Amino acid sequence: MAALTISKLADRLDAFARSQWSDKSILPYIPRPVKWLLLILLLVNIKGFPLGWHLRIFRPTIYARVYHGWRDLWDSKEQRLIRLTKICPIGKSPITHETVFRTRATPDASDFNLHLSNSSYAMTFDMIRVKYVTENLPLVYPDGCWIALGGTHYVFSREIPVNAPYEIRLSAGGWDHKWIYTVARYVTYPKNTKKSKDKSSESSKQQITLAQTPGGSIAPSPARSPPPGSSWFGAPLPPGAVLHCTAVARCCFKIGRITIPPTLAMASNGLGMTPEGFAKVQELRFKDNGKSIRKLYSGGWRDVPLEERWWDKAFGGELEIQRTNGMRALAETVGIPVYV
User: What is the distance of C-alpha 153 from the center of its chain?
Assistant: First the structure.
């Protein structure tokens, strides 16, 4: 009996498909309120459309390619590298030099509790890392290198309400012989700025105490959330900013399968370098069509005597103090053993 009913239903559907009504749209028969509801639903979730994530994450790269694309058609590789050199952050500290990404906790990125979903933090973290590389390490990929992600860690302080504007401030938190730790701070600016300033000033007075182990690593205390509005990494937070989340990504620079020291990769892009020192790096980059610097990346740096390693010298002094403080803050905040 059931099989007969299904067969009749299939015959009717087939007859309808072959009828004169099959080529007519059903939109005129949908009530107007339903149409408006569908339109609003589409607009609210427009960021979740297919390829929407790809367009957002590669927006800085797309902008750079569109801006330079018409000249790249006939310019040489050397001329393209010269243009990219103009945006290199020469002489800036990777600890205090921040990249800022502004967005909003849209409904499609929020959960049923009406605040930003945990998965959305990871999604926007990807976006600002791409922007950070585009702005601060523009010569990494043209040199034939790439960046590998080794892990992420999130410390949530408070939720971001739905539809609230927020920004992500990313900088380097520290580095060792292999890994660079980038730290992103998710902040908002509530209307009650006086209360936010009070919280920020109180939390900034807290001290970080750590025990140094004989092996050179920092013994971390149990992971805990940083105080709202505090600045544990890099540059101080702007006045009135309230901290919602601290995200840490552990990355390393690679050429093929070979790991490049973070100081070498950063100094080769101008970070921590003087204009005169970076000019010498450029001579190495343009020598032999880039073969010399790729050889240096591919393990040639090991043959350079310690006293001649210009990339380590560039990150000495004040930058080394900033790095050590950042690594200690990482151990205290994230609760993982890192090495000074």
Answer: 13
Q: Which amino acid is at 27?
A: L
Instruction: Decide: helix, strand or coil at residue 32.
Output: helix
Q: What is the pLDDT of residue 249?
A: 94
In whole angstroms, what is the distance from residue 202 CA to residue 293 CA?
48
Check residue 207 and report its DSSP letter.
-
Indicate the length of the chain as a whole number.
Answer: 340
Q: Are 204 and 326 in contact (CB under 8 A)?
A: no
Q: Is there a contact between 107 and 44 (Cβ–Cβ < 8 Å)?
A: yes
Q: 81 with 285: CB under 8 angstroms?
A: yes
Q: Tell me what percent of the chain is helix, strand and coil, each rounded to the nearest 5.
A: 45, 20, 35
Residues paired with 99 in a beta bridge: 170
Return the percentage of the chain with pLDDT > 90, whole number.
41
**Where residue 154 falls among pLDDT bands split at 50, 70, 90?**
very high
CA distances from 338 to 211, 223, 233 (A): 12, 13, 15
CA distance 21 to 17: 8
Q: Which residue has the higher pLDDT, 234 or 68?
A: 234
Tokens of 39: 């339109």
Q: Is the pLDDT of residue 335 over 90?
A: no
If you average pLDDT over every residue of the chain, what do you get?
79
Domains annotated for the chain, with CATH where assigned, are: 50-197+225-334 (3.10.129.10)
Whether the per-residue pLDDT at 217 is higher than 80: the answer is: no
- Closest C-alpha to 187, from 202, 162, 165: 165
Rg over alpha carbons for the chain, rounded to the nearest Å, is 26
DSSP-derived pairing of the beta strands 211-212 and 258-260: unpaired
The closest alpha carbon to 151, from 248, 17, 41, belongs to 248
Q: What is the pTM of this model?
A: 0.76
pLDDT tier at 235 (50, 70, 90 boundaries)? confident
